[in-house]
Specification:
Length: 326
Amino acid sequence: MEFEPVFVEALQRAVTPSDADVSVARGAVLAVMAGSAQPPLLTEFEDEYLAAVGIIRPPERTVYQAVVSSEPGQRFADPDPMEPHLGVFRAQHAVRRAVAQLIAEGWIVRGEGNQYPIQPERISVEYPGGGSSAPVLVHSPHIGDRSSPPRFLLVRPADGDGVETLLPVEEMLVDLDGILGMRGMQLVRESRRALGRGLFLASSSLLAAASESAWFTLARGIKGPGDKLRALIDNGRDVGEVIRLTEQHLKSARAGRSSTIAEVVSQGHLFREIRNYALHPVEEHDADREMWLTETGATLLAISARRYLLKLSDLRLALGRLEDAE
């Protein structure tokens, strides 16, 4: 039987998720993810969404029942969007749209497993007199079937400029000994060890201390720094003022492009604020600065540090060349 176009159009509207539906579904997905110890099933997101909008799944092996219309010339009444069968259909699409958005935004990825319980992997263990295997359950994003390793292709040029990565610490330190000195180099190494051990506050604080060391080294390369800056350098204190005065000398000497100087000054002050906030816990909680003491923040600082320190090193070398030319 062919249904009337007016009924089909109403049915289409009833099962198509609105922006509000997708927004509710996003919240449902994140709520389930936050409360689950293992990758949840897609149907769990749907159940959470249905509970949020007040729809109960209909019994199995039942279908939507059309209602005869009381309107003249219309055989069936417009479907009710809250009818359970239609609500479940709409939930499935709302959840899929929400999942697609959250994947694109980097919030979630597909996990391993399917509708069956996730089985642990086993690690072989030998011991005096025998051996066995121990079960472990580690959840990672789904990349491919472990029994058939997939291959991958670059979809962007591998020029090293498009994506910054966390270099091995000794690679990160190449050509930075002049600006960091022995103590600064050790601070960077200790920062990386802390990052690897999950000590994110320590990692960010140590990297901030290395930044401070670099600014004092840069300031010492200024010819005729003036009494105030010389006293600060000798006393090894007030890095904020050292950065401010050094910036003035860099600009007056035209040691680098103004944009480069502004960039390293901004980064230097950021590191100073991070260190002060982390090591002097007298201020109120600041969500913006707390971010730099998390795994994500500490990793971002570690990734960006080499480029920042190289620019400081280049400015130091430029100052040296200007002095030699005089």
